[in-house]
Amino acid sequence: PSRKFHGNNRLLTFQIISHYESINQGKKELPEYFNFASDVLDEWAQLEKDGRKPANPAFWWVNDKGEEVKWSFEELGSLSRKAANVLSEACGLQRGDRVVAVLPRVPEWWLLNVACMRAGIVFMPGTSQLTAKDISYRLQASKAKCIVTDDTLAPAVESVLPGSQFLKSKLLVGQGSRDGWLNLKELL
Protein backbone atom coordinates (compact mmCIF):
# COMPACT_ATOMS: atom_id res chain seq x y z
CA PRO A 1 0.00 0.00 0.00
CA SER A 2 1.25 3.47 -0.81
CA ARG A 3 0.62 6.59 1.21
CA LYS A 4 0.27 10.02 -0.21
CA PHE A 5 2.37 12.56 1.64
CA HIS A 6 1.69 15.54 -0.58
CA GLY A 7 -1.95 15.31 -1.54
CA ASN A 8 -2.72 14.74 -5.22
CA ASN A 9 0.55 13.65 -6.84
CA ARG A 10 -1.02 12.60 -10.13
CA LEU A 11 -0.99 16.08 -11.66
CA LEU A 12 2.69 16.68 -10.91
CA THR A 13 3.67 13.18 -12.04
CA PHE A 14 1.74 13.69 -15.28
CA GLN A 15 3.47 17.03 -15.88
CA ILE A 16 6.92 15.51 -15.39
CA ILE A 17 6.19 12.54 -17.69
CA SER A 18 4.62 14.84 -20.27
CA HIS A 19 7.67 17.13 -20.21
CA TYR A 20 10.12 14.27 -20.82
CA GLU A 21 7.92 12.69 -23.48
CA SER A 22 7.89 16.00 -25.36
CA ILE A 23 11.72 16.12 -25.22
CA ASN A 24 11.93 12.52 -26.51
CA GLN A 25 9.52 13.33 -29.35
CA GLY A 26 11.59 16.36 -30.37
CA LYS A 27 8.87 18.83 -29.40
CA LYS A 28 11.08 20.42 -26.76
CA GLU A 29 14.82 20.91 -26.82
CA LEU A 30 17.00 19.09 -24.35
CA PRO A 31 18.65 21.82 -22.29
CA GLU A 32 22.39 22.18 -22.80
CA TYR A 33 22.86 22.74 -19.09
CA PHE A 34 20.68 21.35 -16.34
CA ASN A 35 20.87 22.27 -12.68
CA PHE A 36 18.44 20.52 -10.36
CA ALA A 37 18.51 23.35 -7.82
CA SER A 38 17.58 26.12 -10.23
CA ASP A 39 15.68 24.15 -12.88
CA VAL A 40 13.52 22.07 -10.54
CA LEU A 41 13.64 23.31 -6.95
CA ASP A 42 13.36 27.01 -7.82
CA GLU A 43 10.69 26.29 -10.43
CA TRP A 44 8.56 24.41 -7.90
CA ALA A 45 9.04 27.24 -5.41
CA GLN A 46 7.77 29.70 -8.03
CA LEU A 47 4.77 27.48 -8.85
CA GLU A 48 3.82 27.42 -5.17
CA LYS A 49 4.37 31.15 -4.82
CA ASP A 50 2.13 31.81 -7.85
CA GLY A 51 -0.56 29.49 -6.44
CA ARG A 52 -0.23 27.06 -9.38
CA LYS A 53 0.92 24.23 -7.12
CA PRO A 54 -0.30 23.47 -3.60
CA ALA A 55 2.22 24.22 -0.85
CA ASN A 56 4.00 21.08 0.30
CA PRO A 57 7.19 20.56 2.23
CA ALA A 58 10.24 20.12 0.02
CA PHE A 59 12.14 18.68 2.96
CA TRP A 60 10.88 17.09 6.15
CA TRP A 61 13.35 15.58 8.60
CA VAL A 62 12.54 13.96 11.94
CA ASN A 63 15.17 12.54 14.31
CA ASP A 64 14.77 9.73 16.83
CA LYS A 65 13.83 12.26 19.55
CA GLY A 66 10.92 13.56 17.49
CA GLU A 67 12.59 16.88 16.59
CA GLU A 68 11.59 18.12 13.16
CA VAL A 69 12.95 20.35 10.47
CA LYS A 70 10.51 21.20 7.70
CA TRP A 71 11.42 23.47 4.76
CA SER A 72 9.18 24.65 1.96
CA PHE A 73 10.56 24.75 -1.58
CA GLU A 74 11.13 28.48 -1.18
CA GLU A 75 12.96 28.01 2.14
CA LEU A 76 15.15 25.19 0.79
CA GLY A 77 15.94 27.31 -2.26
CA SER A 78 16.88 30.31 -0.14
CA LEU A 79 18.95 28.27 2.32
CA SER A 80 20.73 26.43 -0.48
CA ARG A 81 21.65 29.75 -2.15
CA LYS A 82 23.10 30.96 1.17
CA ALA A 83 24.98 27.68 1.64
CA ALA A 84 26.31 27.90 -1.95
CA ASN A 85 27.58 31.39 -1.13
CA VAL A 86 29.29 30.05 2.01
CA LEU A 87 31.01 27.38 -0.07
CA SER A 88 32.11 29.77 -2.81
CA GLU A 89 32.94 32.84 -0.75
CA ALA A 90 33.95 31.78 2.77
CA CYS A 91 35.43 28.44 1.69
CA GLY A 92 36.86 29.76 -1.59
CA LEU A 93 35.47 26.94 -3.74
CA GLN A 94 34.81 27.14 -7.46
CA ARG A 95 32.81 25.14 -9.97
CA GLY A 96 34.27 21.63 -10.22
CA ASP A 97 35.96 21.70 -6.80
CA ARG A 98 35.24 18.79 -4.49
CA VAL A 99 33.78 18.76 -0.99
CA VAL A 100 34.00 15.71 1.28
CA ALA A 101 31.13 15.58 3.77
CA VAL A 102 31.58 13.24 6.74
CA LEU A 103 28.24 13.72 8.42
CA PRO A 104 25.35 11.75 9.80
CA ARG A 105 22.12 12.37 7.88
CA VAL A 106 21.29 15.70 9.48
CA PRO A 107 19.39 18.44 7.58
CA GLU A 108 22.65 20.16 6.69
CA TRP A 109 23.69 17.06 4.72
CA TRP A 110 20.82 17.61 2.29
CA LEU A 111 21.24 21.39 2.34
CA LEU A 112 24.91 21.12 1.36
CA ASN A 113 24.04 18.57 -1.30
CA VAL A 114 21.62 21.01 -2.98
CA ALA A 115 24.03 23.94 -2.44
CA CYS A 116 26.78 22.01 -4.22
CA MET A 117 24.44 21.27 -7.15
CA ARG A 118 23.56 24.95 -7.32
CA ALA A 119 27.21 26.06 -7.34
CA GLY A 120 28.57 23.28 -9.56
CA ILE A 121 30.67 21.88 -6.74
CA VAL A 122 31.11 18.12 -6.48
CA PHE A 123 29.54 16.79 -3.26
CA MET A 124 31.16 13.59 -2.00
CA PRO A 125 29.19 12.13 0.90
CA GLY A 126 30.90 10.00 3.48
CA THR A 127 29.24 8.08 6.24
CA SER A 128 29.91 8.94 9.86
CA GLN A 129 31.36 5.42 10.23
CA LEU A 130 34.47 6.24 8.19
CA THR A 131 37.78 5.69 9.95
CA ALA A 132 40.62 8.21 9.90
CA LYS A 133 42.34 6.08 7.27
CA ASP A 134 39.17 6.11 5.10
CA ILE A 135 38.89 9.89 5.40
CA SER A 136 42.56 10.39 4.55
CA TYR A 137 42.25 8.22 1.45
CA ARG A 138 39.16 10.08 0.23
CA LEU A 139 40.77 13.48 0.75
CA GLN A 140 43.91 12.50 -1.15
CA ALA A 141 42.29 10.53 -3.97
CA SER A 142 39.68 13.21 -4.65
CA LYS A 143 41.95 16.23 -4.12
CA ALA A 144 39.08 17.72 -2.12
CA LYS A 145 39.45 21.39 -1.26
CA CYS A 146 36.92 21.38 1.58
CA ILE A 147 35.79 18.98 4.27
CA VAL A 148 32.55 19.23 6.23
CA THR A 149 31.86 17.39 9.47
CA ASP A 150 30.19 17.82 12.83
CA ASP A 151 31.42 18.35 16.40
CA THR A 152 31.66 14.67 17.27
CA LEU A 153 33.50 13.58 14.12
CA ALA A 154 35.88 16.55 13.94
CA PRO A 155 38.62 14.93 16.10
CA ALA A 156 38.91 11.93 13.74
CA VAL A 157 38.95 14.27 10.75
CA GLU A 158 41.57 16.55 12.31
CA SER A 159 43.90 13.61 12.91
CA VAL A 160 44.41 13.20 9.13
CA LEU A 161 44.41 16.83 8.02
CA PRO A 162 48.20 17.39 8.20
CA GLY A 163 48.61 15.04 5.20
CA SER A 164 45.96 16.77 3.08
CA GLN A 165 47.84 19.05 0.71
CA PHE A 166 44.81 20.11 -1.35
CA LEU A 167 42.48 21.11 1.50
CA LYS A 168 41.65 24.84 1.64
CA SER A 169 38.84 24.97 4.16
CA LYS A 170 37.14 23.08 6.96
CA LEU A 171 33.47 23.57 7.66
CA LEU A 172 31.82 22.55 10.91
CA VAL A 173 28.12 21.68 11.21
CA GLY A 174 26.76 22.14 14.69
CA GLN A 175 26.73 24.49 17.64
CA GLY A 176 30.37 24.26 18.67
CA SER A 177 33.48 25.91 17.39
CA ARG A 178 37.01 24.67 16.73
CA ASP A 179 40.21 26.52 15.92
CA GLY A 180 40.72 26.80 12.18
CA TRP A 181 37.18 25.68 11.32
CA LEU A 182 34.38 27.75 9.83
CA ASN A 183 30.93 27.27 11.35
CA LEU A 184 28.18 26.73 8.78
CA LYS A 185 25.34 27.90 11.03
CA GLU A 186 27.12 31.19 11.83
CA LEU A 187 27.95 31.81 8.17
CA LEU A 188 24.39 31.12 7.01
From TrEMBL:
Keywords: ATP-binding, Fatty acid metabolism, Ligase, Lipid metabolism, Nucleotide-binding. It holds the Pfam family AMP-binding. Residues 52-174 form the AMP-dependent synthetase/ligase domain. It is an enzyme of class 6 (ligase). InterPro entries: AMP-dep_synth/lig_dom, ANL_N_sf, Mitochondrial_ACSM. GO terms for molecular function: ATP binding; fatty-acyl-CoA synthase activity; medium-chain fatty acid-CoA ligase activity. GO terms for cellular component: mitochondrial matrix. Its EC number is 6.2.1.2. GO terms for biological process: acyl-CoA metabolic process; fatty acid biosynthetic process. The keyword Nucleotide-binding applies. It catalyses: a medium-chain fatty acid + ATP + CoA = a medium-chain fatty acyl-CoA + AMP + diphosphate. Belongs to the ATP-dependent AMP-binding enzyme family. This is medium-chain acyl-CoA ligase. It comes from Urocynchramus pylzowi. The gene is Acsm3_1.
